[in-house]
Write a structure and sequence with these properties.
The protein is an alpha/beta fold. The protein has two domains: 239 residues, 3-Layer(aba) Sandwich (Alkaline Phosphatase, subunit A), CATH 3.40.720.10; 147 residues, no CATH class. It is built from 14 helices and 14 strands. The strands form two sheets. The protein has an eight-stranded mixed beta sheet, sandwiched between helices. Strands 3, 4, 5, 6, 7 and 8 form a six-stranded antiparallel beta sheet that branches. A hairpin with a 2-residue loop joins strand 3 and strand 4. The protein is globular. The two termini are 19 Å apart.
Length: 407
């Protein structure tokens, strides 16, 4: 048991965690990062009266995925609780994941058939519209109900993403999800066959291979999304909820399924809402403000544009959030944290190992150490550089929800 679990006490304070996905960056113009290039008067004003620092999502030099990055922010050691992407995607799309299930995340892809063999030319099928995804996923779901006695369920995600659930007739032993991805991770290559890395995973691999073959026939005549690549085979983990650990009623306001799925795994109530803009998310936040103690607000596009190498667009999203920040502050959270789950420098077009800027505002911080919310300014802050899994300790402490340890 973590020490924080032992000293939690009840309270009425409200904690808001805003995750600007992939917010950290590297210099992209005139020696400045995306945060340094952005005009952020509201964030900078807040930084001047907040505790600031940087956090390490997993470990020094380790580039984290989104799952480990968020799990750490919620106070769980990502090295002790490794969660597969398939489970996150399935939960986020509303599929119930049981002990009998293996979940997989799929990407619609474009292949060329050369000498009868598929060769990947676009791993994301041009990021097809979500409506097109729904049509294709319904087609697959209507034609494939089961394989060798294993129930098959599919759910459309956003753009090219899809969740697949293989439901076996009996609970699966640990290690049944040790199946290799079919995504070759590069264009110009053949999709890979799924392979079981443990004896108990071999049956799952056989079912997955048959599923991929059937889907290929169903999609063969499609113009763009004519193949399906599978990634992240995973089983449902066993985690204590945030209420069980910290005594807080928590909720998630996120657009993308994976983050909604991760939040549900730790017991957050996932709020459904219409729209996908930051304004829409803040509107929902205001609506549910009286109902919970802890609020997780996830903003995706900072990461998406970083992965695209589009630093100008990433700057624009940062500036959009800054413009809307006063609406969040009007709610008067007792503790407000703003950070990212990892860094996604546009320079690298992907996640990176670099420390992530962190800001914590409450009535109980020193403040006055940073003039802006940027990587270099946060380095000057009172928090220093800390493991991400310790951020929840600080949020609870600033919310006066931790009692003294020992006599």
């Amino acid at each position: 048991m973590e020490v924080v679990d032992r000293v939690v006490q009840a309270g009425r304070s409200k904690i808001l965690l805003v995750v600007l996905d992939g917010i950290g960056g590297l210099p992209v113009k005139d020696g400045r990062t995306e945060l340094e290039l952005a005009k952020t008067p509201n964030l900078d004003r807040l930084a001047r009266v907040s505790a600031t620092g940087l956090h390490i999502p997993v470990d020094y030099g380790i580039t984290p995925g989104s799952g480990p990055g968020h799990l750490a922010l919620f106070g769980y050691d990502p090295l002790d609780h490794q969660i597969g992407r398939g489970v996150l995607e399935a939960l986020g799309l509303g599929l119930e994941v049981r002990d009998t299930d293996v979940a997989v995340r799929g990407n619609y892809a474009t292949v060329d058939y050369r000498n009868g063999k598929p060769i990947v030319v676009d791993r994301r099928a041009g990021r097809i519209p979500t409506e097109e995804n729904r049509r294709l996923t319904k087609k697959i779901g209507d034609e494939i109900k089961s394989i060798d006695g294993v129930e098959v369920m599919v759910a459309p995600g956003m753009e090219h993403r899809i969740a697949v659930l293989f439901r076996f007739p009996e609970p699966l032993p640990e290690g049944s999800d040790r199946v290799t991805d079919t995504d070759p991770q590069a264009v110009g290559r053949e999709p890979l066959d799924p392979s079981g890395l443990t004896p108990q995973a071999e049956r799952v691999a056989r079912v997955a291979k048959e599923f991929v073959n059937r889907v290929a026939k169903i999609l063969r005549e499609e113009e763009r999304a004519n193949f399906l690549l599978l990634r992240g085979f995973s089983q449902k983990p066993k985690l204590k909820t945030m209420y069980e650990r910290f005594g807080i009623r928590s909720c998630c306001i996120a657009v993308y399924p994976m983050y909604r799925g991760l939040a549900s795994l730790v017991g957050m109530e996932v709020i459904d809402f219409e729209g996908s803009s930051i304004e829409d998310q803040i509107r929902v936040l205001k609506k549910v403000w009286e109902d919970y103690d802890f609020f997780f607000l996830h903003i995706k596009k900072t990461d998406s544009y970083g992965e695209d190498g589009n630093w100008e667009a990433k700057v624009r999203v940062i500036e959009e959030f800054d413009r809307l920040l006063p609406e969040i502050l009007e709610l008067k959270p007792d503790v407000l944290a703003i950070t990212g789950d990892h860094s996604t420098p546009s320079l690298l077009k992907g996640h990176s190992w670099h420390p992530v800027p962190l800001l914590i505002y409450s009535n109980y911080v020193l403040g006055g150490t940073s003039s802006r919310f940027t990587e270099r300014e946060c380095l000057k802050g009172e928090i220093g550089i800390i493991p991400a899994k310790k951020i929840m300790n600080l949020l609870l402490a600033n919310a006066l929800r931790l009692k003294k340890f020992g006599a």
